Amino acid sequence: MSDWTEPGTYEVSPGVHRIPLPLPTDGLRAVNVYAIECEGRLVLVDSGWALDVARAALESALAAIGHGFETVDRFLVTHMHRDHYTMALTVRREFGTRIALGIGEQPSIRQAMSGDYGRQLADMNRWGAGPLLARWGREHGTPEAVEARSEYAEPDEWLDGTVKIDVAERTLVAVPTPGHTQGHVVFVDEGAGVLFAGDHVLPHITPSIGFEPVRGDLPLGDYLDSLRLMRTYPDLRLLPAHGPVAPSVHARVDELLAHHEERLARTLETVRDGAGTAYEAARRLGWTRRNRKFVDLDVFNQLLATGETAAHLDVLVTRGLLRAAEPGSDGIVGYAVSG
């Protein structure tokens, strides 16, 4: 099998081209942008990270199918993360291209625009991740200072609820799938038999859960519900944001649901073994497909891991298997086995 990150333009369905764009110092290595042909114009699903190398790769790929940025009418963006959204903002400034994004991203977009990451810092403290914040500060400066250097802006259109989008002779349906972020959406094209899945359903990895500027109340619960929602649609071909095209959305959804049930069981065991906070539990779990030790992750991925562990702990609380104490004077939430 060829490397899915190899630069180029790949037709994955009639009139739909997959364009992998590079990511910087990122274990994901690349993000897929999908170009949909539309009566001599293009609609792009996701946009890539606003980096010179990614822009050059996108420009070259579009040229290979006879297009340029000036023929892109619209970006349909699955969620607000930089590798999906920020290139669209750059192209819009130059060409006036319209951008659509799920309305659930509105609080996080506005928080990012303000440069105020107090809520995210409070989350990290609540998880007991003070040592990580101190380490991040030593290595990178404060999280809010790093994030404030990024350029975010609102889209032209907020996609509110399940919305039909006409793209020439095809109809896409934007479906809210909160979990990875509050405003994540996927685009269903039943006529072509494909799902533009963003980070919601990935073929080889699971998306991070619960680490965003404005976090939902129960992000893993939202994610599991969003996975089950995909089972109510016909089984479609999976067009993911990271990884190769896969034949069955349903098959991968079943694997992801099973994975998280196993992960919930392991997380429960960490509390039974004495972990009292999300940070302590995360340190006892293995990470990535290689089951890496927490201490071997870089500090950013340790923060992601801690947030995801907190998301699993909170679902265990809703299932009655754990209880969460009210935050103490230090703001940290502790967990204990129920009963």
Folded structure, characterized:
The protein has helices spanning 52-64, 82-95, 106-114, 118-126, 130-140, 143-148, 219-230, 249-272, 278-284, 299-318, and strands at residues 10-13, 16-22, 30-38, 41-45, 72-77, 98-102, 157-159, 163-167, 170-176, 185-189, 194-198, 237-240, 286-287, 292-293, 322-324, 335-337. The protein is an alpha/beta fold. The protein has a domain at 10-120 and 147-248: Metallo-beta-lactamase, Chain A (4-Layer Sandwich), CATH 3.60.15. Mean pLDDT is 92; it is low at 143-149.
Residue-averaged pLDDT: 92
In whole angstroms, the N-to-C terminal distance is 51 Å
Basic shape:
globular
CATH class of the domain at 10-120 and 147-248: Alpha Beta
Question: Which oligomerization state do the chains in this entry correspond to?
Answer: single chain
The major pleated sheet works out as:
7 strands, mixed
* Proportion of residues in helical segments: 25-40%
Taking Cα atoms only, what radius of gyration do you get, to the nearest Å?
Answer: 20 Å
Query: Number of helical runs?
Result: 10
Order of helices and strands: EEEEHEHEHHHHEEEEEHEHHEEHEE
By DSSP, the count of extended strands is: 16
Strand order of the largest sheet: 1-2-3-4-5-6-7
CATH topology of the domain at 10-120 and 147-248: Metallo-beta-lactamase, Chain A
Question: Unreliable segments (pLDDT under 50, ≥5 consecutive)?
Answer: 143-149
CATH homologous superfamily descriptor of the domain at 10-120 and 147-248 = Ribonuclease Z/Hydroxyacylglutathione hydrolase-like
The portion of residues forming beta strands comes to 15-25%
CATH architecture of the domain at 10-120 and 147-248: 4-Layer Sandwich
Structural class of the helices, strands and pairings? alpha/beta
